[in-house]
């Protein structure tokens, strides 16, 4: 569905993407993880034909990005922060505008609003919506023309956990329908839950990529099993021959309250590779 090969991009002499390489297959959810300023939004703009690049090869739908037709571009849906809604218009009227742009019948608007859980607020002004409802309205706009490829740039940023779970459910439903989804996020838990594969982006360079579980196993240097016992004691057992017998003894006497292996999470892996956290308290321009 998407292929990037050795892609570079600079602004005013500063390199913001350097040697980007990855492929995304049909029906995958691919996550691009990195802190603000890492180059995530720049890459989306390149992949959607909004921004040129300096060097490399980019193909979408097996076509060079520069030769994509209008019909190809209609098969792409994009949700980005700067693509806002019209505050004074109702949800329905917002979607009517985009229905006209994409040439789709307006009679699908109500079913699209129902799909994202906004069926009962279609007549309300967008300015009266909560942040979570606005996010779902943006998703409705993306889904309305049934795109094959969907780009979601930080779709749950700043949302409460309940709304985030609702958005996740909608995204997974789209995957079941066969959509390919390119997701940018700095939320490690979100990426681990949703993505088939992820790439870790730091200062314009992909420092690691693969299935989330495989990446975490790859950087499991400790290889231990930790148990918390009903006595309050914590027991750490090296993951080696003989460990099963020791764990079995604790299981047989019912003394284990919790048991965990030592695999790191994506946040820990990113910190190990870059010395930075995926979410950093810094003022940084989005590029």
TrEMBL record:
Pfam families: ABC_tran. Residues 2-228 form the ABC transporter domain. InterPro entries: AAA+_ATPase, ABC_transporter-like_ATP-bd, ABC_transporter-like_CS, ABC_transporter_ATP-binding, P-loop_NTPase. Gene3D superfamilies: P-loop containing nucleotide triphosphate hydrolases. GO terms for molecular function: ATP binding; ATP hydrolysis activity. Coiled coil: none annotated. SUPFAM superfamilies: P-loop containing nucleoside triphosphate hydrolases (SSF52540). Keywords: ATP-binding, Nucleotide-binding, Transport. Signal peptide: none annotated. It comes from the Bacteria. This is ABC-2 type transport system ATP-binding protein. It comes from Eubacterium ruminantium.
């Amino acid at each position: 569905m998407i292929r990037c090969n050795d892609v570079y991009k600079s602004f005013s002499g500063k390199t913001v993407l350097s040697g980007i390489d990855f492929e995304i297959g049909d029906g995958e959810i691919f996550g691009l993880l990195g802190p603000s300023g890492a180059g995530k939004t720049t890459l989306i703009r390149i992949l959607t034909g909004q921004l040129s690049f300096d060097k490399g090869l980019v193909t979408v739908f097996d076509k060079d990005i520069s030769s994509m037709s209008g019909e190809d571009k209609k098969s792409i849906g994009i949700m980005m922060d700067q693509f806002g809604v019209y505050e004074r218009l109702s949800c329905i009227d917002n979607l009517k505008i985009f229905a006209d742009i994409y040439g789709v019948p307006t009679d699908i608007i109500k079913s699209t609003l129902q799909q994202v859980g906004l069926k009962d607020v279609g007549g309300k002004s967008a300015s009266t919506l909560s942040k979570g409802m606005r996010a779902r309205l943006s998703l409705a706009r993306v889904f309305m023309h049934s795109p094959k490829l969907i780009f979601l740039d930080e779709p749950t940023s700043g949302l409460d956990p309940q709304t985030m779970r609702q958005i996740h459910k909608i995204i997974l439903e789209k995957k079941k329908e066969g959509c390919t989804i390119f997701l940018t996020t700095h939320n490690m838990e979100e990426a681990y839950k949703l993505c088939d594969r992820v790439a870790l982006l730091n200062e314009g360079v992909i420092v690691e990529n693969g299935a989330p579980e495989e990446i975490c196993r790859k950087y499991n240097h400790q290889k231990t099993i930790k148990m918390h016992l009903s006595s309050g004691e914590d027991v750490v057992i090296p993951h080696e021959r003989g460990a099963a017998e020791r764990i079995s003894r604790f299981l047989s006497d019912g003394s284990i309250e919790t048991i965990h292996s030592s695999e790191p999470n994506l946040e820990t892996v990113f910190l190990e590779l870059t010395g930075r956290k995926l979410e950093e308290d810094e003022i940084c321009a989005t590029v």
